[in-house]
Amino acid sequence: MNLRDAFESAFGTAPDGVWAAPGRVNLIGEHTDYNDGFVLPLALPQGVVAAASTRSDGLLRMASLQAEGRIEVPVDTLTPGSVTGWAAYVAGTVWSLRAAGHEVGGMDILVDGDVPLGAGLSSSAALECSTALAATELHDLAIEPSTLARLAQKAENDFVGMPCGIMDQSASLLCVRDHALFLDTRTLQTEQVPLDLGADGLALLVIDTRAPHRLVDGEYAARRRTCEEAAAALGVPALRDIEPDHLKGALDRLPDEVARRRVRHVVTEDARVLQTVTLLRAGSTREIGPLLTASHESLRDDYEVTVPELDTAVDAALSAGALGARMTGGGFGGCVIALVEADAIEVVAGRVADTFAASGFAAPAPFVAQASAGARRLV
Ligand code: ADP
Ligand code: MG
Questions:
Q1: Is the CB of 165 under 6 A from ligand 1?
Q2: DSSP string across 95-137
Q3: Closest Cα to atom 11, ligand 1: which residue?
Q4: Fewer CB within 10 Å, N- or C-terminus of the chain?
Q5: CB of 157 closer than 6 A to ligand 1?
Q6: What average pLDDT does the chain have?
Q7: Is 302 one of the annotated active-site residues of the chain?
Q8: What separation in Å is there between the alpha carbon of 200 and the centre of ligand 1?
Q9: Do domains 3-191+373-377 and 196-369 have the same CATH topology?
Q10: No. of H helices and E strands in the chain?
Q11: Which one of the ligands is nearest to 47 CA?
Q12: Which helix (H) or strand (E) element contains residue 224?
């Protein structure tokens, strides 16, 4: 059954429209977004599609083809905690828009997604951003995409209760096809950086390791806290303000060995993002490979957010000839990306699968990511 038919059988009428928002994969710039730093995500072909209509009675009715049942709540009673589970991402987005003074009333909304859930490919932002776009267009609200990203982030931070940065929602709303989105998370300035890997005979292989997420919330919060405390100790607003040239001096001023390593990751990672952007602008795409691998090593050794599945996937991909490979997303599970020659996709994916089997890990799920379009109306 297609989404429009499913909407009709769920809610009894045809939807007023259908909107799509993609998941994302981050090419480089990990754990930099809450340090006011730089990120470089691209939108995936996979995403969430939302069929929606307005209602005149102020009721928000939500359903998902990936979840059982239907959740109903009057929009004027929405408050953090009033909706939990998957529907909190949808209800939270409506709440966030209303809290910012936008007149969003009742809606029926049915979503269908094909981003693997909880794999670090941001199905949550796809869900929020498809909802946000549906809600704003159905209510004739003209909101800048970067503002909408902030409101969707607020939904996840304050309604769902996940303290994520601004990258995921920005990528889902702002990315364009065949480009990566260079985002300065302090100023929210963006630049579309050409990334047409197919034209260069290359491919970006995304490998969902299917490793169970371990410790993720507590460790994420701990990393954030360490970074904030280090910035305060160094007298800067955020670690983004430490220039690579001043890194050594900054590290010498930090008494704590763990804090030193965390800071070194953030400062060198920001520099790697800038170098990657410079290389991509120059058309030297193959040369970004070593930067991806250096990013992984920094996340493994200094930031300590990898797990054996991530390290194994990266090592296997590199040994099979990948030009560069790294974990992507928050870590502690999730996905690895590998930049590969287009004719080496099978070899690299096969080597990772064989190595996983030999290591007793669950079978990984690889796919090739094309840099795809950001959120948009479909119908
Ligand atoms: P990620 O964003 O990496 O996929 P998160 O834990 O941030 O992982 O978000 C995953 C959650 O988003 C799911 O557990 C679910 O609650 C919600 N979600 C995403 N897509 C859908 C969908 N199509 N239908 C229902 N819930 C969804
Ligand atoms: Mg998420």
A1: no
A2: HHHHHTT----EEEEEEEE-SPTTSSS-HHHHHHHHHHHHHHH
A3: 124
A4: N
A5: no
A6: 97
A7: no
A8: 33
A9: no
A10: 11, 13
A11: 1
A12: helix 216-234
How far is residue 216 from each of residues 68, 93, 221, 225, measured CA to CA in Å? 26, 23, 9, 14
Residue 377: the pLDDT is 98
- Looking at domain 196-369, its CATH superfamily turns out to be GHMP kinase, C-terminal domain (3.30.70.890)
Nearest atom in ligand 1 to 117's CA: 4
The ligand 1 atom at the shortest distance from the C-alpha of residue 156 is 7
Nearest to 33 by CA among 264, 193, 188, 236: 188
- Output the CA 230–ligand 1 centroid distance in Å: 32
Q: Give the least confident one: 34-43, 160-169, 275-284, 359-368.
A: 160-169
Q: What's the pLDDT score for residue 334?
A: 95
CA dist 92 and 78 (Å) reads: 8
**Position 215 pLDDT exceeds 90:** no
Tell me how far apart the terminal alpha carbons of the chain are, to the nearest angstrom.
17
Q: 92 alpha carbon to ligand 2 midpoint, in Å? A: 14
For the chain, give the percent of residues with pLDDT over 90: 96
pLDDT in tens, 216-234: 778 999 999 999 999 999 9
- Decide yes or no: CATH 3.30.230.10 for domain 3-191+373-377: yes
The active-site residue out of 112, 168, 270, 302 is 168
**Segment 283-322, tens digit of pLDDT:** 999 999 999 999 999 999 999 999 999 999 999 999 999 9
User: Does residue 174 register a pLDDT over 90?
Assistant: yes
CA of 280 to the centre of ligand 1 (A): 31
87 lines ligand 1 (CB under 6 A): no
| Confidence class for position 238, pLDDT limits 50, 70, 90 | very high
